[in-house]
Specification:
5-stranded mixed beta sheet; alpha+beta; elongated; 23% strand
Length: 129
């Protein structure tokens, strides 16, 4: 049985994704998707988006491990990883996923703090006297 591997990333979160033929089970960090994301229905839809677009919801099993960041960034990293794994499985999916921006790594990360500043750009309050 063939297994396809891909890594998805977003901010400081990363997701290792293994995709194989199956019945549509999604296991993240040893838990089902519903258990892992709880009541966050919008995030669950976001994670399942690449599967819905390629009509593979009921034909692949996904095992994933996520680390770093918060649950929202981890969900986006998982979405990116699933998209890349689907392309690894069948190159024809690339034409479906790319127009929706699912193969692009969202490169926005937190800007580093600079010395003499309170945050990355926030300056100390100016005092004239």
């Amino acid at each position: 049985m063939a297994r396809y591997y891909a890594t998805g990333k977003r901010k400081t979160a990363a997701a290792k994704v293994w995709l194989s033929k199956g019945s549509g089970k999604i296991v993240v960090n040893g838990m089902s998707l519903d258990e892992w994301l709880g009541g966050h229905e919008a995030l669950k839809l976001r994670v399942r988006l690449p599967l819905a677009l390629t009509k593979m919801e009921e034909s692949v099993d996904i095992v994933a491990k996520t680390l770093g960041g918060g649950y929202s960034a981890q969900a986006d990293a998982l979405k990116h990883g699933i998209s890349k794994a689907l392309c690894e499985m069948d190159e024809a999916f690339r034409a479906v996923l790319k127009p929706h921006g699912l193969l692009t790594r969202d490169a926005r990360v937190v800007e580093r703090k600079k010395y003499g500043k309170h945050k990355a750009r926030r300056s100390p309050q100016f005092s004239k006297r």
